[in-house]
Amino acid sequence: DTRLSGSACWFWFCPLAFKAAVLIQRWYRRYVARLEMRRRCTWRIFQSIEYACEQDQIKLHNFFSYLMDHFTPSSSKERDFISRMFISGESFKEAELEKYCDYESMEVPDSYTGPHLSFPLLPDHATALLEAFKQKQQLHARYVLNLLHETRKHLKQLPNISHVSTCYSEEVTVCGDLHGQLDDLFLIFYKNGLPSPSKSYVFNGDFVDRGKQSLEILIILFTFLLIYPKEVHLNRGNHEDHMVNLRYGFTKEVMQKYKVHGKKILKMIQNVFCWLPLATLIDQKVLIIHGGISDTTDLDMLEKIQRNKFISVLRGKKRKESNRNVEIKEINGESKAEADPAGNEAALSLCPQPRPTQAPSMANKLEFSRWVRQTVQEQIEWCRRLVDISESEEEELTYSSVVSLTDLDGPCWTRQEEWKQILDILWSDPMPQDGCRVNTVRGGGCYFGPDVTGKILEKYNLQFLIRSHECKQEGYEFCHNRKVLTIFSASNYYEIGSNRGAYYQANKTAHTLTMTQRISRVEESAFRALREKLFAHTSALISAFKAYDKDNTGRITLSNWATAVESVLQLGLPWRMLRPQLVRSTADGMLQYKSWLDDLAMEQRSQEHIQSSLLEVIYRNRSNLETIFRIIDRDHSGLISFEEFHQTWKLFSSHMNIELTDDGINDLVRSIDFNKDGNIDFNEFLEAFRLVKQSQ
Questions:
Q1: Catalytic pick from 61, 149, 239, 261?
Q2: Where is the composition biased (Basic and acidic residues) (predicted)?
């Protein structure tokens, strides 16, 4: 019977087909699991290297801050130079800033073919800018400065926390970090529409750095802000900080695009950044901040802080803190006798009233006149410090100052407390565990848990928290029981295919790649960056390896290799899992670390024709050296003048207790100026370090 034989065949084949399906399913699940593991490891590499770089920036800034706090200028000239060098954003009064950045005196030549702006701005101006930037055109410096001037005037009237209502617009679009990626902004506008009275936008900070078109993004956002002031809202991010811009590219970008007026543009941008609002509140229920919160976050305090005082959030002004405490005690009616004796004495000892030196003889009128002027100036300076008044600050009637004036009976906060509030909301990250602890990975802000989120939401009757600050594979991520949403709008942030933006996939190339191809491409880039990091620490790795190689065989176990690498790089990576991509497997489970390091050096030398030991030092320190160079180069000319070098070296020598005469410093700077043009460029700066390394 054919039908019976067919049935028998089916019953015989069915178990085999089922087994095959199960095997295929298992294989596919293992394949997907391995793919996900590779993706996570790749992501971990990129993120660890990025955060380690942020730690270096904060450590470098803390080092200079320490020098500032412990360096006593020997003359008013030195004091002025150091002040301009490290607190440049505060060195201009209102009138001085207007005069320095005078755009009206600039003429736009007839040969200029870019967009023209006239104020007040209209929607057509924004459209013209978008088209011009798509065509790679550049806005004339006059219009840039005029736009920054008008933006600053507008921002000064805004509260620290912007309030948005969905009653007046159909929707509110929240965008995260853009980091100079103009194509992502274009794609947001293409998919969601341009800002308009019916379409509100909140841009949640980090508009600049890393990408190549940060300035264009600022110009577009500021233009829409002025056209639609009720529909466009900007929050400050941790990269809206001139000290961070020195390291991550924005300062360099502006100076390259505007070689003549770049310094003026940067000065205005620094001042605009410090006036950006700190947060946005939608319908009194959704809080939008750039980084996060902490267990001490106080929205009432944030609402009343004079935000423009914090030009750079990286540095809190410690010297003035004790003086402010004295002022607060006197305002609150506490006399010196009523205050805590130890604390009061300590506070006043930090700001002692200067005692006049013994007056010289009246016979020498010139010397006596100098003594009088110096004594009076010292007394005036002491009074200013006592009441926390800076010569460079001019009181203006802004939203923040009005709030503080109308609330004189409320609590008085110290400068340090205000600084920490801003630092936390700009630099913090969420964590899955309860509690709140210092964010040691970034070096600033804190990690906050679900319990901290719950308490803040309950305290202020909020439903939801939106933040940015962290790159996510899909452009967004929920955490803390879906009470916290991270939005990141810069797609392909680490590499093409590494991540989506929150609403889009910006790069067309990523669309044509399969998942496996995307992960392989990003993985290759991640391991290349990791091998550069390993090579940059060759000397430290050799020392760590030798600690496990007591007999000096040049071989260690792969387990000891992983432990030693983590002890040096401290990136918190799963080195045993990453080992197959970094180290060739051996039959006996031992690694010849010297030949492995030689292979690393060979790979880097194929890209840079420099000797291995020098290349290691440059890879490890280039970013720090470039940042130091830009800090010294206060006029952003791309050159360090002899005067800038002279004053900076006096700062270093004071810290390191090195006795060096002015003639010695002059000889040193002339020896670094290899082409004898009277300035030091970055290549000469690096060459000086190369010569020092070789002599060692």
A1: 239
A2: 330-339
pLDDT digits (tens, 9 = 90+) for 628-660: 776 777 666 667 777 777 777 666 666 555 566
User: Would you state the structure tokens that stand for residue 159, as one six-digit string?
Assistant: 């509260």
CA dihedral 526, 530, 536, 541 (to 10 degrees): 180
Give yes or no for a contact between 199 and 252, defined as CB atoms under 8 angstroms apart: no
Residues sharing a CB contact under 8 Å with residue 156, sequence separation 6 or more, in sequence order: 275, 308, 396, 398, 399
pLDDT digits (tens, 9 = 90+) for 334-354: 433 334 433 443 333 344 545
Let me know: does 170 contact 179? Beta carbons within 8 Å: no
- DSSP class of 200: E
Q: Can you tell me the mean pLDDT for 75-99? A: 59
- Residue 312, token pair as written in the block: 């750079």
Residue 478 half-sphere exposure toward CB, CA atoms < 13 A: 4
Distance CA 256, CA 251 (A): 9
Q: Which amino acid is at 557?
A: T
Q: What local confidence, expressed as pLDDT, does residue 605 receive?
A: 52
The span from the CA of 9 to the CA of 443, in Å, is 69
Instruction: Please indicate whether residue 239 is annotated as part of the active site.
Output: yes
Indicate the pairing of strand 199-203 with strand 232-234.
Answer: parallel
User: Tokens for 14?
Assistant: 């069915």
| Predicted pLDDT at 386 | 45
DSSP 251: H
Using CA atoms, how far residue 49 sits from 289, 406, 441, 491, 687, in Å, is 24, 47, 10, 18, 26
Question: Which residues contact residue 244 at a Cβ distance below 8 angstroms, ignoring those fewer than 6 apart?
Answer: 57, 209, 238, 312, 314
Greater confidence, 446 or 66?
A: 446
Residue 321 has pLDDT above 60, yes or no: no
User: Are residues 297 and 333 in contact, defined by beta-carbon separation less than 8 angstroms?
Assistant: no
> Closest Cα to residue 305, out of 281, 277, 331, 324?
277
HEC letters along 280-324: EEECCCEEECCCCCCCCCCHHHHHHCCHHHCCCCCCCCCHHHHHH
Residue 281 burial by CB count (10 A; 0-12/13-18/19+): exposed, middle or buried? buried
> What is the tens place of the pLDDT at every residue in 185-209?
999 998 888 998 888 999 999 999 9
Amino acid in the structure at residue 644: E
Q: With pLDDT > 70 as the criterion, what percentage of the chain qualifies?
A: 63
